[in-house]
Amino acid sequence: MRTLKPEDFKSFLKARPKDSHKKDFGHVLVVAGSKEMPGSGYLASLGALRAGAGLATYCLPQEAFEKFDSRYPEIMAAPADFSDPQSVLKLCEKKQALVLGPGLGRDAKIFAFVENLLENASLPVVLDADGLMAIASEPKILKKRKAPAILTPHPGEMAALIGGTTEQVQKNRELTAKEAADLWGVIVVLKGFRTLIAFPDGRLYVNPTGNPGMATAGTGDVLAGMIGGLLAQGCPPEKAALAGVYLHGLAGDMAAAAMGQKGLIASDVLGYVPKAIREISCHHGVQLSS
Predict the structure, then answer these.
(1) Residue 201 structural domain
(2) How many CB atoms lie within 10 A of CB 189?
(3) Beta strand pairing status for 55-61 and 76-80?
(4) CATH number where 130 lies
(5) Nearest 5°: phi and psi at 28?
(6) CB atoms closer than 10 angstroms to residue 34
(7) Chain segment 31-76, per-residue pLDDT in tens
(8) Tens digits of residue pLDDT in 91-136
(9) Pick from 79, 88, 125, 127: most CB atoms within 10 A?
(10) How many domains does the chain have?
(11) Could you tell me if 30 and 58 are in contact, meaning their C-beta atoms sit under 8 angstroms apart?
């Protein structure tokens, strides 16, 4: 197991040409949200933009769209009928990455929708939260995908995927992450204290950044969006996972240093993501424009 360092991904933090256009940095489709939890998709979409994606579209059900918050004018919204996966598959066209799952809910219709999208969407996908629970009874569906998949479970979601308990996962975090990555041919980001990133070839990284203040609603959504944003910019999946996890934790550390851990919220972490990127760039030989 290796400790994750900026040197493992810094070469993909590149300067932007002076004649850059937003389409040069990719378009992320975030399929998320529900009437009860519309904020999940907002956080993921903002995470994608803060990580440098040029565009983010939040695809959400109609009942959640009615609660769309104009405080986030950077996010495009696309209401859709999740009982019709084809309508969402059309939205995947001309996108570079898919973030699937935050706040979707856990009923049978949503589970069927997620399975259909995973089987038919050709985009690299970051599968998070309710998207993970949707395949808990059939995780082998992941092996059918031709495009890369990055899973971002917390220990409870990991337990559901392997048919175990949270306690079992926590006692065997390293082995669990490695076996899941190998079995399903995916990248596994097992969240928690010292988040693990496991690859199908057996490599395993442990992340040194992050703090207990990040144990709050929505920080996982931000992480999923950040990884999706890096994918959309052309970052290889393994580098997107490594960079997303490290920078997410560093942003949380910077937010905690400024504000304290207790009372920290996901939106605070979002605000420090560009500063975290700049911090790594300035101290590790990467020249980024302001």
Answers:
(1) 2-12+24-283
(2) 29
(3) parallel
(4) 3.40.1190.20
(5) -100, 135
(6) 21
(7) 999 999 999 999 999 999 999 999 999 999 988 888 777 678 899 9
(8) 999 999 999 999 999 999 999 999 999 999 999 999 999 999 999 9
(9) 125
(10) 1
(11) yes
Query: pLDDT tens across 230-260, in order?
Result: 999 999 999 999 999 999 999 999 999 999 9
Residue 290 counted as domain residue: no
> Long-range CB contacts (< 8 A, 24+ apart) of 233-238?
233/25, 233/26, 233/51, 233/52, 233/53, 233/54, 233/96, 234/26, 234/96, 235/9, 235/12, 236/12, 237/124, 237/148, 237/150, 237/187, 238/187, 238/199
| DSSP code at position 16 | P
- Residue 94's contacts (CB-CB under 8 Å, 6 or more residues apart) are 27
Are 101 and 114 in contact by the 8 Å Cβ rule? The answer is yes
Count how many residues are written for the chain: 290
Residue 289 belongs to some domain of the structure: no
* Of residues 281 and 264, more confidently modeled: 264
Cα-only R_g, the chain = 17
pLDDT at 287 over 70: no
Identify whether 18 is part of a domain.
no
The DSSP result for 235-273, as a single string, is --HHHHHHHHHHHHHHHHHHHHHHH-STT--HHHHHHHH
Q: Is residue 233 part of a domain?
A: yes
